[in-house]
Design a protein that fits this description.
single chain; alpha/beta; Elongation Factor Tu (Ef-tu), domain 3; Rossmann fold; 2 domains; four-stranded parallel β-sheet; 10 strands; binds flavin-adenine dinucleotide; iron; 2Fe-2S
Length: 232
């Protein structure tokens, strides 16, 4: 068998140039970045991209970022937590500006996706478990769910340092108000004023109470920072 590239392979491995069309402070330590990527093939809820930066001297660095966006259209959205001692995330948070170009490779991650069930299929509940910026792929899954208006019950357990650190706050609240999502927030460092539950890491009991029971056979998605990217 000869090793040649097919049009499909070329599509899969393509790096595309995206232009920054929006930057917005997401939380005190993170930023929402919107990119216009001509030729973008669309993505499913839960997928991610690799972003590659090239310095003037040719040095390159690439990192993976989840897509908060999903579906058709050439505009994609990321949300990047700033690691003070990191190489790429401080640049994306502090330097990248509207009009700048970055290279984008994807969508990637066909194993971490959610799609609405076809009408003949039984509805399966969805349990999302997110820590910090790990909520970003969950947002694209939630957006897909809200857009489809499908009947799957959606629950999310979201562990975050403090109320100020909640990503996509308004959108999550809107999905809650519409009855399309139920979120249990776990604040690890600072609880909201008046909260009866003190800040702290989640306990086994609270974890069990917050999750969809296994007998309901939920589809479960878990995403959170790794120890090296947790920051201070
Ligand atoms: C599939 C996927 C999706 C992701 N999605 C997101 C997302 O949506 N949002 C998001 O914010 N992040 C996301 N990430 C994490 C992201 O890819 C980067 O890892 C993150 O932004 C940090 O990159 P950095 O270049 O700033 O830090 P890096 O320079 O890579 O450093 C990361 C950490 O490692 C430490 N470190 C670096 N080099 C060394 C060394 N030699 N020895 C010891 N420690 C070292 C640094 O001090 C820092 O704390 C995702 C990762 C994956 C794999």
């Amino acid at each position: 068998m000869s090793l040649t590239s097919s049009p499909a392979t070329e599509r899969r491995v393509a790096w595309r140039v995206g232009t920054v069309v929006g930057v917005q402070q997401e939380t005190p330590r993170s930023r929402r970045i919107t990119l216009d990527v001509p030729g973008w093939p669309g993505s499913l809820g839960g997928q991610h991209v690799d972003v590659r930066l090239t310095a003037d001297d040719g040095y390159q660095a690439s990192r993976s970022y989840s897509l908060a966006s999903a579906g058709e259209g050439g505009v994609i959205q990321l949300a990047v937590d700033r690691l003070p001692d990191g190489e790429v995330s401080p640049y994306l948070n502090d330097v990248l500006a509207v009009g700048d170009e970055v290279e984008v490779h994807g969508p990637l991650g066909g194993w971490f996706v959610w799609q609405p069930s076809a009408s003949a299929e039984p509805v399966r509940p969805v349990q999302l478990i997110a820590g910090g910026s790990g909520v970003v792929p969950m947002v694209s899954i939630i957006r897909t769910h809200v857009q489809a208006g499908d009947a799957a019950p959606f629950r999310m357990l979201y562990s975050i340092r403090s109320p100020a650190d909640v990503f996509f706050r308004e959108e999550l609240a809107a999905a809650e108000s519409a009855g399309l999502l139920s979120t249990e927030y776990v604040y690890t460092r600072e609880a909201p004023p008046g909260s009866t539950t003190p800040a702290g890491r989640i306990t086994r009991e609270r974890f069990a109470a917050a999750l969809t029971p296994a007998e309901q056979e939920p589809t479960v998605y878990v995403c959170g920072a790794t120890p090296s990217s947790r920051g201070s």
